[in-house]
Design goal:
The complex is a heterodimer of chains A (425) and B (248). With 425 residues, chain A is mostly helical. In chain A, 67% of the residues lie in helices and 5% in strands. Chain A folds into two domains: 248 residues, no CATH class; 138 residues, abc type-2 transporter like fold (3-Layer(aba) Sandwich), CATH 3.40.1710. Chain A has a four-stranded mixed sheet, sandwiched between helices. In chain A, helix 2 packs antiparallel against helix 8, helix 13 crosses helix 15 and helix 15 runs antiparallel to helix 16. The longest helix of chain A is centred in the N-terminal third of the chain and has 30 residues. Chain A starts with a helix and ends with a helix. Chain B is α/β, with parallel strands linked by helices. Chain B is built from nine helices and ten strands. The longest helix of chain B has 16 residues. Classes of the chains: A mainly alpha (425), B alpha/beta (248). Chains A and B meet through helix 1 and helix 10 of A and helix 2, strand 6 and helix 3 of B.
């Protein structure tokens, strides 16, 4: 026990003497979690909460162009700026000159086209229903589309969302116009307002509900992803500190000296593991506290902990064990500190990329999704997704624990074999 | 039990490392008696470090054996042996980010010494080695000579009966070298057997009362220092070594 306590004390002193290592373990993740969460939250707000700035050039000689603009204004989704660009090309130039992101051109024939189309459909309908004797002449209507410009930097799905909203307003206008025209066709001057309202308003909605095991569930947002994701990243980054610590001891002869002493090498490795697992728990405590306490003060979503704290603690335990075991293995395999730091850091970045720390794994191609299963960070993050976003049960967490414990066992075995080959243990 | 140690026997030790064609040690046999100051001498690459490593159990010989014999002819091994040997490697094998006292406290605890024993012994050692004033300073600011002294102090924290030193004065100034040798003489008079490897023949001639000279893994001379010089009719160890190796 005396030996273990001495080893724990030594490891603590070594850790506190490594100021750069400490800053990488604690300062780096705090900065990362702040920066990335703020950036992602801004992007989320831009897409979901901010109005879309849109330049509009309405060249329509009729009223429907104005009606479309009115509907867009009333929706509250757009921040419209009307300009007088006579052609789509002129509007594009204005867009570029004003450094705006989106623009809509309504052509001169817009109302005329819609009216003609509605008239033709209504005449065909009344003829088919026997309300009209003379068969309508099928006119070939010229295609006069709206033109939507967007800055190339705008994501395709964002532009697609805007055009979908505009198309939905267009449908509304077309439907109303069609009803009016049908009524006129059958000799009723004004179509009843109630019918129009029923047709236009009683749309079938889609309820959007996230699948979860519990009624208590945190909403998926930048905080619920970034806080655990960057904590996991920082935890695995201990490979730089712990890995080089082991390489140093191997190379400077300390391990050999220990071999001449009446001590078990297990004490030394156990002490390292205990101290660095405590570091991992402290990283979680620090960054999670920031997510829960500090984030709301800077208008970021608050981190919401799941109901099972025991499951959270066990998940942290498995993640930290995997991170520490990986660092031990790198420390045992590397021939120099440079190798340990370089390979360790790069491998962590690759694990992070594959594990979905930066980009969710579901957007990756299938083969990368398959490969991501070999990243311990993927399983760590999966554990927190189950806990935070699905309030997961132990049963759902078992595969996560299974992989992380297996990964830890493999790393520890490799470490043991390498140190045995080097005759250090 | 420690006081019962009588001698160390090396029987036909050979060592060949993997992926090498030649033997680092070839059929080496000699005996070390308790209380001796024995120098294992030879040029760089002669096999000195390999021999020291085999003696303190760091590596196994390819063939042959080492026995630590008690007066009743029983053998000491395992943890009992580790408790009575001290090892000072050629490298600075300690934690440079810690202070000398922190290092001594850690290594002392690994020998199961009490806090009080560690404190008393650390103060004695640092005082003898004249580095008490830097006892609480981080070692990474120390000179090479001071680091050598810390390396030595760690090997002695548990008052070993046998002390192995691998090139303990390499890379240090004359004053530090003298201080280390004086200190080693002091602990030898207190009963510690010293097994010392070096390629500094003049230093060994002054310090050691027994010598084992090796060259290319073979023993070329073995016996009391003065007797060897006298029997070969040479003025010093350097001349003796040249005489013994020039025909090879």
């Amino acid at each position: 026990m005396n030996k273990l306590i001495a080893s724990l004390k030594k490891e603590t002193l070594l850790l506190f003497s490594d100021k750069i290592g400490l800053s990488m373990l604690f300062l780096m993740p705090v900065l990362l979690v702040f920066i990335i969460t703020i950036i992602q939250d801004s992007a989320y707000k831009m897409v979901n909460e901010n109005k879309v700035s849109l330049l509009v050039s309405n060249q329509d000689s009729g009223e429907l162009g104005n009606k479309l603009i009115l509907l867009m204004n009333k929706s509250g989704l757009f921040n419209l700026e009307q300009v007088n660009a006579s052609t789509p090309t002129a509007l594009k130039e204005t867009l570029l000159a004003k450094n705006k992101l989106t623009a809509l051109f309504i052509p001169q024939q817009f109302s005329l086209q819609l009216t003609q189309k509605a008239a033709q459909i209504s005449q065909t309908m009344t003829y088919e229903l026997g309300l009209r004797e003379i068969k309508p002449i099928a006119l070939t209507l010229s295609e006069t589309n709206l033109t939507f410009y967007h800055d190339p930097i705008l994501q395709e799905n964002y532009s697609y969302s805007i055009t979908n909203v505009i198309a939905s307003f267009l449908n509304g206008i077309e439907n109303e116009l069609l009803i009016n025209t049908i009524y006129t066709e059958v000799g009723i001057e004004n179509s009843p307002e109630t019918i129009k309202q029923q047709i236009l308003s009683n749309k079938i909605g889609i309820n959007q509900i996230a699948a979860t095991n519990s009624a208590k569930m945190a909403q998926p947002n930048s905080t619920q992803h970034n806080v655990p994701a960057w904590t996991i990243f920082a935890m695995f980054f201990m490979v730089v500190s712990l890995g080089s610590n082991i390489v140093k001891e191997r190379l400077n002869g300390s391990f050999l000296r220990l071999k001449t002493m009446p001590t078990n090498y297990l004490h030394i490795l156990s002490a390292k593991m205990i101290i660095y697992m405590l570091v991992a728990f402290l990283q979680f405590a620090l960054i999670f506290s920031i997510g829960m306490v500090v984030f709301p003060f800077i208008n970021l979503p608050q981190l919401v902990l799941p109901s099972s704290i025991v499951a959270v603690i066990f998940t942290i335990f498995c993640c930290s064990l995997a991170a520490v075991s990986y660092a031990l293995m790198i420390g045992a395999l590397a021939k120099t500190q440079e190798q340990s730091n370089g390979f360790g850091a790069i491998s962590i970045i690759i694990f992070a990329a594959l594990g979905g720390i930066w980009v969710p794994t579901f957007v990756m191609p299938n083969y990368l999704q398959l490969i991501s299963n070999f990243s311990p960070m993927h399983w760590c993050l999966e554990g927190f997704y189950i806990l935070f976003l699905k309030d997961g049960s132990w049963t759902a967490l078992f595969p996560v624990f299974g992989f992380l414990l297996l990964f830890s066992a493999l790393c520890q075995t490799t470490t043991y074999i390498k140190l045995k080959i080097e005759k250090i243990i | 039990m420690n006081a019962d140690l009588s001698h160390i026997e090396l029987n036909a030790i050979s060592k060949q490392y993997k992926k090498t064609l030649t033997q680092s040690l070839s059929n080496v046999s000699f005996q070390i008696n308790v209380g001796e100051k024995i120098g294992i001498l030879g040029p760089n690459g002669a096999g000195k470090t390999t021999l020291i490593s085999i003696l303190c159990g760091l590596i196994e010989p390819t063939t042959g054996s080492v026995h630590y014999k008690k007066k009743d002819n029983q053998t000491i091994s395992g943890v009992d042996l580790k408790k009575i040997i001290g090892f000072v490697p050629q490298e600075y094998a300690f934690y440079h980010e810690l202070t000398p006292l922190q290092n001594l406290a850690y290594f002392g605890a690994l020998y199961n010494l009490t806090q009080q024993e560690i404190k008393t012994r650390s103060n004695q050692l640092l005082s003898f080695l004249e580095i008490s004033e830097v006892a609480n300073k981080k070692i990474n600011t120390f000179s090479g000579g001071m680091k050598r002294k810390v390396n030595l102090a760690i090997g002695l924290i548990h008052q070993p009966k046998i002390l192995f030193l691998d090139e303990p004065t390499v890379g240090v100034d004359v004053q530090t070298k003298l201080a280390i040798i004086t200190f080693l003489n002091e602990i030898n008079t207190q009963g510690t057997t010293i097994i010392y490897s070096s390629h500094h023949l003049a230093e060994a001639e002054d310090f050691c009362n027994q010598l084992v000279m090796i060259d290319k893994g073979n023993i070329v001379a073995n016996g009391p220092t003065l007797e060897l010089i006298k029997n070969h009719d040479v003025k010093d160890l350097q001349a003796l070594f040249i005489q013994l190796t020039e025909n090879k």
